[in-house]
Fold this sequence. Notes:
alpha/beta; four-stranded mixed beta sheet; 8 helices; 40% helix; 2 domains
Amino acid sequence: xxxxxxxxxxxxxxxxxxxxxxxxxxxxxxxxxxxxxxxxxxxxxxxxxxxxxxxxxxxxxxxxxxxxxxxxxxxxxxxxxxxxxxxxxxxxxxxxxxxxxxxxxxxxxxxxxxxxxxxxxxxxxxxxxxxxxxxxxxxxxxxxxxxxxxxxxxxxxxxxxxxxxxxxxxxxxxxxxxxxxxxxxxxxxxxxxxxxxxxxxxxxxxxxxxxxxxxxxxxxxxxxxxxxxxxxxxxxxxxxxxxxxxxxxxxxxxxxxxxxxxxxxxxxxxxxxxxxxxxxx
Length: 281
């Protein structure tokens, strides 16, 4: 067995919280630059240039990419041979989130009660934590900063199985057409298909972590990702909804087996400030 101290986890998570808010991942920045070169709309090119400038300034000056420093969504891949000592894993993660948001001077946006809405937790905790146990002795932490603007435009549907792949396409395209302009495009579109209602939503969010340009290993799903990206960009929503060919930078799809009577589909939109970082311990 491999032992990892909870304190080590907290320190790494704190670093991820700050880095995720200050530095746009290289794949996203590169995709924005390619989009600027290919965009045919003058307004679209102007917006993309400003988004790139914003990302470069944030990295240079160590400032948040966006005023909405989001919900801390943490995906943990925990090796079965790893033992966390000196505290629990969720406690360690939340301690790291609190430290990172405090020391990074990041906005705390989490309300203690979703209905009374009268008290902020003050440190952006608790995080939303997903833990998957796998073989091995590694601990992998993916830290996703999810702003409310894009999260609010996400959705899930329980389609009739008879709707099939065409129903899945219609749902995804209709959701992007209705909500995409409000989610701060260009978008990264995460799609979850299968499982159950809650699993489809989790799959959609996990899909956002896949690097831009990395297609599904399933050839049929990979082809569907490419088709949907073309169809989404034909909607003409464009950067920040001002028109153009760059509505999305990527469509990433994750699937899971499901019941014969179900066809769950979830769409989780990621905005142009697509902030995530990874650490392997």
